[in-house]
Design brief:
Helix 3 packs across helix 5. Strand 4, helix 8 and strand 5 form a beta-alpha-beta unit. It is built from ten helices and six strands, in the order αααβααβαβαβαββαα. It is α/β, with parallel strands linked by helices. The protein has a domain of 165 residues: Rossmann fold. Helices cover 47% and strands 11% of the residues. The protein is rod-shaped and about 140 Å long.
Length: 259
């Protein structure tokens, strides 16, 4: 009996020990647990750093940066023209102080508006620019050429005298524009602007008063310089031209017929 009792106790003890070992968690898992916690902590730090950078990037924008450079006049002109490189422009009242053929004929010499000189020079450097006007006589033509020469418009080589065109009627100016097929035409005559609206991609109407009705591809400004030297913030926020001007138009040879 004693032997059997001892054997039963021993067997029970072995069974308990065996069961305890099976139910006991492996020691290796305990050692790896801290590593997983460390890795999680590291990922948390990286995530926090990344989020901080995103928040900083969202808050600090070029427009908010006090040290950000303002766009140059050349950059503004490129942006405003929306890729257009061929431009035609009336002279009287836009480039010149004189506002009519009669006034031009009466003065001893024509005068280029001082406020428009910088814009005009930049346009001659960037664009294929043509200036045009209706005049009464050859003396008026000479006055215009001398005024442009005195203002230094021909000095850079961007504009040559052959690109200053004269005609005797308003229809002659319209004819010039249609033959040249510019990307932009600049004029102060609302009738001519209206006639050309369906032929020219974009037009700039120089007027102190914005017309009530105007084609969607016609923009209005009080002056040429104001159009290109408007508020810098506004210039960054929107493109004036809604059109993507193509490069299909080539500078092919042509014969201008003035009326």
């Amino acid at each position: 009996m004693n032997f059997r009792s001892l054997s039963a106790v021993a067997g029970l003890a072995l069974a308990v020990i065996f069961s305890w070992k099976l139910l006991r968690p492996p020691s290796g898992h305990r050692r790896r647990q801290p590593k997983r916690q460390s890795s999680s902590a590291g990922n948390s730090d990286i995530g926090t750093s990344s989020n901080s950078q995103l928040i900083t990037s969202a808050i600090v924008s070029p427009s908010d940066d006090a040290g950000a450079q303002k766009p140059t006049l050349e950059q503004i002109i490129r942006q405003k023209l929306g890729g257009g490189r061929k431009v035609t422009c009336r002279l009287l009242g836009i480039i010149l102080e004189e506002r009519s053929p009669e006034e031009l004929q009466a003065v001893n010499q024509a005068t280029v508006r001082s406020s428009v000189v910088d814009v005009l020079l930049e346009l001659t450097n960037y664009c294929d620019l043509y200036l045009m006007e209706r005049v009464f006589d050859e003396e008026s033509e000479r006055k215009v050429i001398v005024a442009l020469e005195d203002a230094g418009v021909f000095a850079s080589g961007g504009l040559i005298k052959d690109k200053v065109l004269f005609c005797s009627t308003e229809n002659g100016r319209t004819s010039f524009v249609r033959q040249l097929e510019p990307d932009w035409h600049i004029d102060s005559d609302p009738e001519i602007i209206s006639q050309l609206a369906r032929f020219i991609t974009c037009q700039l109407h120089i007027s102190q008063v914005k017309p009530e009705r105007m084609a969607s591809n016609v923009f209005t400004s009080a002056s040429l310089e104001h159009f290109f030297q408007c508020n810098m913030t506004e210039t960054h926020q929107k493109m004036i031209s809604p059109f993507q001007l193509s490069d299909k138009k080539k500078n092919a040879g042509f014969c201008l017929i003035a009326l």
